[in-house]
Amino acid sequence: MTSIPIKPVTKAAVTASALSVLSLMSSGLALADVQRLPWRLHRQHAGIWSLGIETQSFGTSTNYGPSGDLVTPAGFESLRRTEVAATFAAGLHPRLTLFGRGSWSITQVSSSSVSGYQNGLADQSVGLSLRLLDSKASIDFQVQADLPAYQNGNSPAQQNPFIFIGDASTNVHVGGFVTLPLGQTWDLTGGSGYTLRTGQFSSAIPWSVSLSKNPDLAESGWILRASGWGFASLATDPNAQDPNVASRQQGGGGSFLVNAVNPSLAVAQVDTGYRWGPEISATLGVSKTIWGQATAEGLGVHAGLQWNIDRLRGTAASSFRARKQDPKFVTYSGQGKVKAVSSTRTLLIDQGSQQGLSLGDRVDIFTLTPEGNLGQPVARGEVTQLDWDQAQLTLLEVYREVAIKEGFAVQKPVQP
């Protein structure tokens, strides 16, 4: 198991990052593309910055009506939206990730009322992800907002489709995720939250669940993911008081992809990809709307490329792998064992406050010889959670390209 060293982050830096996002949120954030942006976890390892480039294309010719039945609007032929997006995530601290997303789209509509295409900037996102618990199961809190960098303006009056085919509503999401490791490479992640929208649009409950296989950050291998995501409307839109109103039906030629009243949605998605070592990975996937109310039915295809940067050690692939052995292993006190490996960066040991450990202590990890004797030092970790008889370590540095396993020895250096 290879891990990334952690660069200390001051309380001032963490507070400044949080205040920056909250300041943006209070200035009028929005989500226009509520039907095409899944609620997903954006956490990143400490010290790692990632940049992802993704393109996706979604096509629709049918709606799910307010009661869930498939209907084709009168005079509507098709709508296709193609988007290119860049997502950035920075692991500022073992528990804090700052992320953002910028996108550009082109929309093509064919209908008897509105036909043509428009292109321009689409939704731009910003958010924070905070890890609350990192043990055998991990729990994350996330706040996210999406800002439309466009105005629908006079598009309907000019008989043009909306630039982005979006609602132009202010929106903020707050929620959480739980991740359960299934073996060494599989993870099950589920999340839900609350979405607040303006423009009289209904609030909603976003949700997502995914089963994924990911190689260790420093290894090459296949990426597999099966997921479902969507949202459930809380049906608070006052326009729904008119039983004949299912959509405001402007700009989208009658498609419920835009301006839908009280929409709900469920999407199934599969992705596959490959990681070439620690720095670069690519994915390809397809998504399909499987249920909805007052929403567009359609098929989406997408492809993405992600580049990871180790801000502490540079961008070379070797920086994610073994570090040079630290010569400062001098004297140690006590000896314990690794009880469990929680993730690529955290593990549980059988030493706690009863054995003299404190939060922030450094602990070194050693291999064992076939005879059970102390072997070579392989890594150094920091105590980040502490109980009476056990503690959680977050890895700071790795000195040897060795997968840390249950039973490895741990000792606290007296002279670090």
Overview of the molecule:
The chain is mainly beta. The protein has two domains: 11-310, monomeric porin ompg (Porin); 324-413, Thrombin, subunit H (Beta Barrel). Helices cover 4% and strands 53% of the residues. The chain has one helix at 11-26, and strands spanning 48-64, 70-71, 76-93, 96-111, 116-121, 123-134, 138-148, 171-182, 186-197, 204-213, 221-233, 264-276, 280-293, 295-310, 332-341, 346-349, 362-368, 374-386, 391-398, 409-413. A hairpin with a 5-residue loop joins strand 17 (362-368) and strand 18 (374-386). The model is unreliable at 1-32 and 313-329 (pLDDT under 50).
Keywords:
416 residues; mainly beta; Porin; Thrombin, subunit H; 2 domains; twelve-stranded antiparallel barrel; six-stranded antiparallel barrel; 1 helix; 20 strands; 4% helix; elongated
Give a short synopsis of this structure.
This protein has one helix spanning 11-26, and strands at 48-64, 70-71, 76-93, 96-111, 116-121, 123-134, 138-148, 171-182, 186-197, 204-213, 221-233, 264-276, 280-293, 295-310, 332-341, 346-349, 362-368, 374-386, 391-398, 409-413.
